Amino acid sequence: MKNNMQPIFVLGPTGSGKSAVAVELAELLGDAEIVSADAYQVYRELPILTAAPGAEERARVPHHLVGDMGVVENNDAAMHARRAQEAIRQIAARGKRPIVTGGSGLYVKFISHGISPAPPSDPALRAELQALPPEEAVRRLQEADPAGAAATNLQNPRYVVRNLEIVLLGGKPLSYWQQNWQHEPAGPGFAIARETPELDARIARRTAAMLRGGALDEVSALAGKTLSATADKTLGLSHIRQYLQDIVSESCVCIEKRMQQLRDDIALATRQYAKRQRTWLRREQWLTHLPATAETTAHALAAQIAARLGA
Fold it and tell me: Which residue of 45, 84, 102, 151 could cross-link 38, Cys pair, CB 3.0 to 4.6 Å?
């Protein structure tokens, strides 16, 4: 792919404003389209809960892999990367510049550096490992690959199970597979970096707006559906489900208190997720970090990227 057709990666933790920056950058560049690298914005039933680009943004710039799957469909990193890479090829074939944006680390990595050569999942082994108590899965990973365990987010059972599965199936430590991964990214990458207090405030505002804007109705409408393993992990989904169960028999006063608690719980979970994202982004040496403050506009950040690209 010619350099001027290489995908541009606009990344950042949740709440950092990367989606708005990607739209502004697409308009600055002219002929550009956006490909989502978000694990959850693909689900058409959850646009509010996943903070998916709205109708106005999608009218300004074409978006791909947004709202094109149902919540009953699974969407793992490898599947998403294959679809994203095909979208990138088609965009470039039309003479336009692909812009990839998102914050789901493994999804981004599979798009930027190719799908990991690690062994594919084995359903029987995966089921066996998922049935283990979380602390037992952690113990087994630490015994099988101490260095790999140290580099794994041990608070996330999904990561622990997958990494343990790779070690057991491949017979080699995680570092072996990482060293054999493609080293050069598919294109230049930029990461929006905000100070923690400002990012936390943005997350709090977005959480409140999401709950006012219809997230409860989105989750309520899913009743009776069996969600895929990926969709079921959508941030905030379990909190809202529990809230909807709790308020059935509560008074109005209690409901108001529960709503405040719901806002606080989702904001906390989102901050924790953003912290993990920031850790991952700092480790990715191929990214150019763009400091931003409350006064920095999406247009200004997009202009910085365009200037660095020589556009």
Answer: 102
- CA angle 230/56/52 to nearest 5° reads 15
Residue 35: which H helix or E strand, with range?
strand 32-36
Considering only CA atoms, which of 50, 52, 82 is closest in space to residue 270?
A: 50
Please name every residue paired with 183 in a beta bridge, in sequence order, or none if there are none.
none
Residue among 172, 49, 33 nearest 99 (CA)? 33
Phi, psi of 52 (to 5 degrees): -70, 150
- pLDDT reported for residue 1: 45
Interval 95-106: pLDDT, tens:
999 999 998 888
* Number of C-beta neighbours around residue 276 at 10 A: 16
* Low-confidence spans in the chain with pLDDT less than 70: 1-3, 180-182, 249-253, 311
CB atoms within 10 A of CB 289: 15
| Sole residue written with tokens 């009953």 | 72
Q: Are 56 and 216 contacting, i.e. CB atoms less than 8 angstroms apart?
A: no
pTM for the full predicted model: 0.83
Collapsing DSSP to helix, strand or coil, 263 comes out as helix
